[in-house]
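User: Earlier you gave me the apo prediction for this protein. Now I'd like the version with adenosine-5'-triphosphate bound, so I can compare the two side by side. Same sequence as before, with the ligand SMILES added.
Assistant: Got it. Here's the input I'm using:
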Amino acid sequence: MTTEPILDVSSLTYDYGNGRGIEDISFALWPGEVLGIVGESGSGKTTLLKLLGGQIRPTSGELTYRLASGEVVDLNALPEGRRRLLARTELGFVHQNPRDGLRLAVSAGGNVGERLMASGARHYGRIRGAAADWLRRVEIEDGRIDDKPTTFSGGMQQRLQIARNLVSGPRLVLMDEPTGGLDVSVQARLLDLLRGLVADLGLTVVIVTHDLGVARLLADRLMVMQGGRVIESGLTDQVLDDPREPYTQLLVSSVLAA
Ligand SMILES: Nc1ncnc2c1ncn2[C@@H]1O[C@H](COP(=O)(O)OP(=O)(O)OP(=O)(O)O)[C@@H](O)[C@H]1O
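And here is the structure of the complex with adenosine-5'-triphosphate:
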């Protein structure tokens, strides 16, 4: 890890207009680090992720991102065109529902290749080759490259969405409950795959999950959210094995009892 954070978040606040959202969140994220965000439904996890991905703009606070070139940009002040370019080249976003992150009318190979074209690739043979490589990497059989995602199982769709995100070599990948909504055995396989990819590619990841088992397996560090605020953070094992806050203790014990 380098000494320079890839992302710096300071006093980030988002108000939906009804007094809800997130409030005063600050943290830094270093290259190669996996940050888990946990908390009950409505605690603000998705709102925070959307802010990091630039899908919504904060009510107040700072969000700075260090580009591959070393340049530091203020994500809030970035003109729309540059923000979109950054989203295509440096960021990945894995949605809980793969249908939100895939183009259902386009073949599996097309879904992966399209992302490469969006970041500038033009040579058809090379694009198809890279797509085939990535489908293999996420354990989708060669013979399925021309099939539409609608013919895939939920687990395959999720693996395809991951390939579509990773093919262009993003530096920061945001994941919103990537294993949610899948059967337990499918979840386990996907988690294994994700863990391998994160380690092999040295990805920097922010992963939102309400599943502490997922957080334990993937995250180096955890932030616990409640009512739009971060109430506890630290190394994953430390937070889960020795939670300081009563709310985190409850979260951990309810999962252990489940
Ligand atoms: N579009 C919206 N309009 C108004 N309030 C919203 C909107 N989306 C979320 N909120 C409120 O903002 C707060 C944070 O919601 P958010 O969806 O970020 O939580 P979450 O932790 O991701 O929950 P979940 O695990 O259920 O997705 C909640 O109080 C929620 O009711």
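For your comparison, keep in mind: DSSP finds ten helices and ten strands in the chain.
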